[in-house]
Design a protein that fits this description.
This protein has one domain. Helices cover 24% and strands 21% of the residues. The strands form 3 sheets. The protein has a two-stranded antiparallel sheet. Strands 2-3 form a two-stranded antiparallel sheet. The longest helix is centred in the last third of the chain and has 15 residues. The structure holds iron/sulfur cluster (2 copies). The site of one iron/sulfur cluster has 14 residues, from helix 1 and strand 3.
Length: 173
């Protein structure tokens, strides 16, 4: 069965590093929404090397409990990007995409599916562009798969932090 999937394409060459996307994402995900701003809570981060004229928006992706092997530097248009520059993973190697208070992983949720995502709306340089495509519906999620995921989070962060995060989400309604 086909389903519509919304994604955001990044036109990195247009980015000037203004960080409006980080600010509005963190504000939308504050509790209650728009009550505070903290870019460390954003699900989009700008990888910045101003002296090399590098500004690279990266969306938070999957949590992974292990660092990857075999990293490489990338050279594109004469610019050198560090090994993790394009990576969306929330991994033990770095602090990106971790909730600053609890250390829990953050992930882009497309603004909970509400219309046009906030980062897209507030990027005045049109770096971020929504695209819709059709793809095969994902396989059914089995309860035991969810248990494995929850267990790995509990092992990593402890039950208390997981409960705190769930409680915070449930108060947002
Ligand atoms: S709002 Fe747009 S131009 Fe500004 S940092 Fe984000 S992606 Fe780049
Ligand atoms: S789509 Fe929404 S949740 Fe994802 S990075 Fe943009 S503002 Fe944040």
């Amino acid at each position: 069965m086909l389903k519509k999937v919304k994604t955001v394409t990044i036109k990195a060459d247009l980015c000037n590093g203004c960080r409006a996307c980080e600010i509005v994402c963190s504000a939308f995900h504050a509790s209650p929404p728009f009550s505070s701003v903290n870019p460390a809570r954003s699900r989009i981060r700008i990888i910045r090397y101003p002296l090399s004229d590098i500004w690279m928006p990266v969306f938070a992706g999957e949590y992974t409990p292990a660092e990857c092997m075999g990293r490489d530097k990338y050279v594109l248009d004469g610019k050198v990007y560090e090994e993790c520059a394009f990576c969306r993973a929330v991994c033990p190697s770095r602090d990106a995409f971790k909730e600053p208070d609890s250390g829990l992983p953050l992930r882009c949720d497309m603004c909970e599916g509400e219309g046009e995502p906030w980062c897209v709306k507030k990027c005045l340089n049109h770096v971020l562009v929504v695209e819709e495509r059709e793809e095969e519906a994902a396989d059914q999620i089995y309860p035991q798969e969810l248990e494995v995921g929850v267990e790995s989070l509990v092992n990593r962060y402890g039950l208390g932090k997981i409960q705190d995060a769930v409680a915070r989400r449930s108060t947002r309604g």
